[in-house]
Amino acid sequence: MLKLTTKSKLNPGEVVKKAVAYFGPGGYGLTVTNKTDTCASFEGGGGGVEITTCPEGKGTSVDFETREWENQVKEFARSLK
Questions:
Q1: pLDDT band (50, 70, 90) for residue 65
Q2: Are the CB atoms for 54 and 41 separated by under 8 Å?
Q3: E strand intervals along the chain
Q4: pLDDT of amino acid 81
Q5: pLDDT tens figures, 28-56
Q6: Separation CA 18–CA 57 (nearest Å)
Q7: 8 CB contacts (<8 Å, ≥6 apart)?
Q8: Which sequence spans correspond to the domains of the chain?
Q9: Burial class of residue 38 in the structure, from the number of CB atoms within 10 Å of its CB (0-12 exposed, 13-18 middle, 19+ buried)
Q10: If residue 75 lies in a helix (H) or strand (E), which one and from where to where?
Q11: What's the predicted TM-score (pTM) here?
């Protein structure tokens, strides 16, 4: 299990949209189990990914929690910088 926090210049909605494209059916093929303007959850491959965003200054704070998708979460987090 991995918990990770990063910052992004994108707004929360843009981060969630990008996460769905990356982890969801068009990306790694995980099932989207929850999606709002500020968070998204995915399941599949024996694990899952949860992403929660919060506006912070001129950007967004992004929290991740994952099981079995640690490398992909780290890669996605780097892409948000």
A1: very high
A2: no
A3: 2-8, 31-35, 39-44, 47-56, 59-67
A4: 81
A5: 999 999 999 999 999 999 999 999 999 99
A6: 20
A7: 15, 59, 60, 62, 80, 81
A8: 8-61+68-76
A9: middle
A10: helix 70-79
A11: 0.95
